[in-house]
Every structure is written in structure tokens, then in C-alpha cells.
Amino acid sequence: MSEITLTELEKRYGETTAVEDVSVEIRDGELLCLLGPSGSGKSTTLRMIAGLETPTSGEITLAGADVTDQPAYERNTSTVFQDWALFPHKTVLENVAFGLKMRDVPKEERRERAEAMLERVQMGGYGDEDPTTLSGGQKQRVALARSLAVNPDVLLLDEPLSNLDKRLREDMQIELREIHEDLEETFVHVTHDQDEAFTLADRIGIMDQGELIQVGEPTEVYENPANRFIEGFLGDTNFVDSEVVGVTDGAIRVETELGYELVLPTDRDPDVVEGTELTLSLRPEVLSIERDPAADAVEGDEQPVLADGSTLNAVVGTIENVLYRGSTVRYSVSVNGTAMFAERTGASTDALTAGEEIRIEWDGTDVLAFRADGSRVTL
């Protein structure tokens, strides 16, 4: 049985639709991240699961029971908020024990459970502290301990790490993942941070403009994005406009804004014809940079086919800017006046500089293609 099922969930505020037709089964014990930009509807969806918002239409079930119209206090869920929402007039221990007190847990038992949960989040010994004196990371741990102390069936986390600095946020991501693995409870985590979602999630649900576009394991949504929005949202890429100029067995030929005709290998009958406009995605990790631009890429020439049947595509361009990023170096390249970027990992004794002419190569099988409406072309 799915721990949480959302069926055709919708939330409107007057003429504004915040969430539209969201349906998903969140499995018992999994950590699902709802990922999307600001205003995509992810926090509103979480608040409807929590009972803090009432759906305009649709259904929510928890452990098989319909809770669509049930108030928050009747649901065995607990929420960790972005701003921590700690009580400044209570000690750390009193904050953690607050939910237990509201549930009429005896005083000694709630103290024991609160202390145990503080130990679990590495805040043992802080029980008598004033929460206003704690650092941001410590406050987040206390808020997490408070939510977990009541032993909820579902823990809901609404951008809980967004107020932390980068290093602490990364540490807390790992810690939160370990807590989830230990407890084996259902977590639903809202974030706009792609790295955070990939670190935490068993599955990621990607939202945009109130709709849940794709749900899948991190590798699935990254390697097989459902549309152009997801491809652009999940990481940096080069989008290149093109037009199909030929379709043959095993290959689509496209003329691109780069001034090169490129080849997209395919093992199926593609649903494109000559004249179809496509946007190609060339991710930096699939691009290889060569200093010698010699003749594998010449405008108008056919791109070479390798011995294993894959297709090597290549273009020649001039480096315009070099951006050193510590672990990577990013090169901004002009290819016949069109901007691209490529990256190398780490510092190199063979460092490239602005003004150099280079060849950028990639295997045609690594290219993703999208139609004008943003839908994916399966190659």
C-alpha cells in the first residue's frame, strides 16, 4: 500500500491555479523530493498533504485512509519549516517535547524521548539552552528533532535547509539522508535545489507551473528528462537550434545554428520529417575539447562514423572567456558567432586560453533532442 496517494489534486486561489491535476503515489518508507522553481506549486502540494491547505478538488489518502478534508491535527504527519519556527521562550528540550505534550504523553516519557531525539541529531547536551543562542544549523537540528519526536507516519520538510550556508547545507543533506535510512519512515522534501534533491531523494518529482511533470529516480530524470524544461532545469547545457534536413535508416541529419550539419544516430523510426525544427541539448560532460582543430570538423562535410557505429560530431570555435571554478574550468566558445560552453575537470598543464581555436567533439548518441513544443524526441 502506498503511504500517500494524491489523485488529481488541484488548488486554486481565486483566478490563480497554484496546483493542477497532481497525481502521484508516494511509497511507504521512501524519501520523495518535490523539486521545482519558485511558484511551481511544490510547497502548496506539501501543505495540502499536511492539512494546512484544503484542496479545491482531488483526493489525498494516507495509509489508505481518505484525509482530504481532515484537519492537520488529526493526521499523523509532522512538518519541518524553512524558518524553523522554534519557540523562543522555551528551552531546546521543551521545544522538542512540545508535540509530545500536546499529545498528552506523560512528562517523564516525553523528556526521555526528547533527549533521545536530540542525541540522534547530534544536539545532546543542549536541552537547557535558549534556542535564540543557537546557530542556524543547530536550530535546524532542533526543529528536525521536534518533528521526529512525535513518531509521525510521514515527515514533511518544506525547504528546511535553504537558510543554511553551503557547507552546512551539504552536511545536513547527508545527515538527513542517514536519519531517513535509520528510521525507514516516509519523507516528503520540498526544495528548489537540484543538488539537494539528487543527494537526498529515492525519487524526484519535478514540478513547474503547478503541474507534476515527471517522477522518477534521480538517474532516470537526469538521463531521460521528459521535456526541455526538465533538461534545462536539472543542470547546465548547450541548447542548439536546428532543422532536420534528412532522415535515413539509423540517423537523422540536422542543420544547426552553429553552421554545421550534425548527425543524430537512432535505433528506431523517429517521429520527425525533413523540415522539423528541433532543439538539441549538448551537456558539458559529453563534450571533449581538443586544441588542434584539424580537419575532423569542416563546415559542410559529413560527420564521421566510428567503427562501433556511433557518430562523432565535431565543431570548431574560438575561446572567448576562461572561467576557473576550482574543480573545473569552463570555456566560453564562439562557434561561427553562436555561443557555446565546454568544461574540463581540474587544473591542467595543457591549459587553454582566450583567443585559441579549438575543436569540440561529442558522440551523437549523447545528444538529446526536443521539439518546438518542448516534448522529447526519442532517438
TrEMBL record:
Q: Which InterPro entries match?
A: AAA+_ATPase, ABC_SmlMolc_Importer, ABC_transporter-like_ATP-bd, ABC_transporter-like_CS, Mo/tungstate-bd_C_term_dom, P-loop_NTPase, Transp-assoc_OB_typ2
Superkingdom in the source lineage: Archaea
What's the catalysed reaction?
Answer: tungstate(in) + ATP + H2O = tungstate(out) + ADP + phosphate + H(+)
GO cellular component labels: ATP-binding cassette (ABC) transporter complex
Recorded topology in the membrane: Peripheral membrane protein
Coarse class of the primary localization is: membrane
**Assigned EC number:** 7.3.2.6
- Localization annotation: Cell membrane
- Keywords of this protein's UniProt record, alphabetized? ATP-binding, Molybdenum, Nucleotide-binding, Transport
Q: Which GO terms describe its molecular function?
A: ABC-type tungstate transporter activity; ATP binding; ATP hydrolysis activity
Q: Does the keyword Nucleotide-binding apply?
A: yes
Q: Which family does it belong to?
A: Belongs to the ABC transporter superfamily. Sulfate/tungstate importer (TC 3.A.1.6) family.
How is the quaternary structure described? The complex is composed of two ATP-binding proteins (WtpC), two transmembrane proteins (WtpB) and a solute-binding protein (WtpA).
* Function (record text): Part of the ABC transporter complex WtpABC involved in molybdate/tungstate import. Responsible for energy coupling to the transport system.
Q: What is this protein called?
A: Molybdate/tungstate import ATP-binding protein WtpC
Q: What organism, scientifically named, is this protein from?
A: Natronococcus amylolyticus DSM 10524
